[in-house]
Amino acid sequence: VIRRTVLAANTAESFNGGAVAMQNGELALDRVTFSGNSADGAGGAIHLTVSSADATLTMTDSTIAFNTANLDADGSGDGGGVSVVPSGAFTATLVVRNSIVAANLDNGATIDPDLFFSNGALVDWQSSGFNLIGSNAGATGTVGSGLPNVDGDYVGSAAAPLDPRLDILNNWGDEVLATHRPLLSPLSPAIDTGSCPGSTGDQRRYGDAGAGQRRVDLAAVPNGFASDGCDIGAHERAGAPGADLELFLDGFEGGHTLPWASEAL
């Protein structure tokens, strides 16, 4: 599990997976930003190889943007954001909710900037909705385009990519955890089109401090279809610090996020 983390400016030379290269197994990403990572091969941010057992990649409230595959432009490598290579009879399951995979680059002969599934028949794409995918090139048989599509995701295509309109990677209010905040002008399609029920803070622990929740619904921005007013990705626009109060920063008690009650027990 990788939670509330930024993985930036990593490079895989003569290899795949600029920030993360995984083979089989399971990986869960929760409020994570991948930015500026690159690979000479496939998977500018994440490369998943499935060879001897089923594998699962779960991504929630995360942002994968501005990563590059095939950095050396030798024609070998696909998937600037996420590359998945399943083989044999084994399945790669991707469980994705309220996340951005967009504005990534692929320098290969075939341009698959955001997603690349080498064998879509062995990729089980389980969308929980409210995702923003810049282009489904490289995964057209698995991830359908639409604004939103049948899964409730906002997905562009090779002919009409979807610009997430994200600001530069910066410490927007947080001294440690850099994020890509969605732009207000031109308005990012990530703002108020997501859904984050039960989440008490974004990657920075920012949100509506008064209500103790991540969601900050901007009155001037119409909500997307079925959205609760949360933003898609790792950053909640207009969020304030103090929305998510953890008792123990070392993860004691399983990461319990509720403050102590004031009443005597």
Gist of the model:
The protein has 265 residues and is mostly beta strands. It has one helix at residues 252-255; strands spanning 2-8, 11-12, 20-23, 26-35, 38-39, 46-50, 55-60, 63-65, 68-69, 82-86, 92-97, 100-102, 105-106, 115-117, 123-127, 132-133, 154-155, 166-170, 179-182, 206-207, 240-241.
Shape: globular
Largest sheet: 9 strands, parallel
Number of helices: 1
H and E order:
EEEEEEEEEEEEEEEEEEEEEH
Oligomer: single chain
Mean pLDDT: 92
Number-wise, the strands total 21
Coarse structural class: mainly beta
Compute the gyration radius: what is it? 18 Å
The percent range for helix content is under 10%
What distance lies between the first and last C-alpha atoms, to the nearest angstrom?
A: 34 Å
Instruction: List low-confidence stretches.
Output: 260-265
Percentage of residues in strands: 25-35%
Describe this structure in words.
The chain has one helix at residues 252-255, and strands at 2-8, 11-12, 20-23, 26-35, 38-39, 46-50, 55-60, 63-65, 68-69, 82-86, 92-97, 100-102, 105-106, 115-117, 123-127, 132-133, 154-155, 166-170, 179-182, 206-207, 240-241. It is mainly beta and 265 residues long.
Fill in the keyword field for this structure.
four-stranded parallel beta sheet; about 0% helix; about 30% strand; mainly beta; about 260 residues; globular; nine-stranded parallel beta sheet; 1 helix
